Amino acid sequence: MYSICRINTQRGASRLLLRFQSTDAKEVLTIGGKNFKTHPEYTNVTPSIINHVGKSLHVKPNHPVNILRDLIEKKLSSVDNAFTTYNKFDPVVSTFQNFDSLGFPADHPGRSKSDTYYVNDKTLLRTHTSAHEMECYSKVGETGKPGFLISADVYRRDEIDKTHYPVFHQMEGCRVWNGRSIPQIKADLKVLQKKLDEHEMNLVVEDESLSNPPDVNPKQSYMTDEEVDLVSQHLKRSLELVISEVFTQRIKSMRAENPNADIPTELKFRWVNAYFPWTAPSWEIEVWWNNDWLEICGCGIVQQQVLLNAGYKENSAISWAFGLGLDRIAMLLFEIPDIRLLWSEDPRFISQFKDGHINTFKPYSKYPGSTRDVAFWLPDETKENPEVHENDIMEIVRDSAGSLVESVKLVDRFTNPKTNKKSLCYRIHYQSMDRNITNDEVNKIQKQVETRLVDKYNVTLR
Ligand code: PHE
Known about the structure:
Layout: H1 9-22, E1 28-31, E2 34-37, H2 47-50, H3 64-80, E3 83-86, E4 92-94, H4 95-98, E5 118-120, E6 123-125, H5 133-143, E7 147-155, E8 167-178, H6 182-197, E9 202-207, H7 208-211, H8 225-257, E10 266-276, E11 279-289, E12 292-302, H9 304-309, E13 317-325, H10 326-334, H11 347-350, E14 370-377, H12 390-401, E15 405-415, E16 422-430, H13 439-457, E17 460-461
Parallel strand pairs: 3-7, 9-10
Antiparallel strand pairs: 1-2, 4-6, 5-6, 7-8, 8-13, 10-11, 11-12, 12-13, 14-16, 14-17, 15-16
Helix pairs in contact: 3-8, 3-10, 6-8, 12-13
The site of phenylalanine has 11 residues, from β12 and β13.
């Protein structure tokens, strides 16, 4: 992603403080019916984001994200009924849950205010479902099931386009072998392999990680090679099973809708080495779809520290974990062209889907859109005028336009050779999924975007 430069949090904070207090500052924020104290330097969650809390698309009947979640849960549970499901966790979590319990280093970019929505200095909107791993690991004994699945809405400050939205949904999956019994892992793997063998599609799997073991996060020293080999096979086969199920469903619906279409006859997967602070080794799985490798999911063998944090005894357990983004897979599966449609309240959207079924979304007439450019000179960087991150500009547009913004793109960047002053031009496309928007309305929003840019970042409009 392009970024102008990282915001310097210290200087950025004091500046936001000055400007926020006169206008938007509130001492207390209500999120999901609960009150939270704000923090002058940390709070950056906006009303338009708070409005998404509680929509819970992942459990909304007949919604594509819900249909996909259900499909994956059922497939995984069909193997050996090993998973407890948690789908109702609150999105407001502590920095400890989201980062520290998972061993995120203090300077990890995920912690920065340009990437994360903070409620106050110790509380934030979870950026991933891994925030609940520790808690769920500590409940494994009670539930009697060695695994769990957590689905939830997650929040990240990001760019604005057809595939990015600041709120999306993830499913976390974890499986633990308390006691580290090799015969047990082998038995579980056998059951899983049988299920995979029954699968109707031909699977082609490339695994570069086998010949090129990850060096940034090698196996943890308390584990044996055999254990790591077996547990990583269990993890990889579980994900291959789930992903082939999802794409096979898609292929079936393609065939039913148009038998003459260019329909894939096999599914191709590839495993690549990856890095996550709380898993070692770690991988990502990609699937070949529409002539491209598509990143589906990050995963790995959980760092012992997470298990110790959850109350396990030293060297007593081994576990895998994965985290899968539901929205983009749902978009592929149902051929939904714009991520904002997932949030649409238009009956023409939701009436097209039915729990348990995968069908191709039929586009309906779009409401007309409208484009505006905003061009401005950045101020010289000084103490009062800190660097501006692109996500800060995105946030101003989101907060002013809400769901009426389709995309924001940098279309021009220019430095005056004489003065060395930098100018940027962003093109904002406004369009509603649910109704007509008037020119007047767009002009008002555009004006607000401009005013806020000037107020917050001291830019000079061109
Ligand atoms: N939480 C990670 C993400 O959001 C995914 C992940 C989950 C990776 C579990 C490893 C283990 O990208």
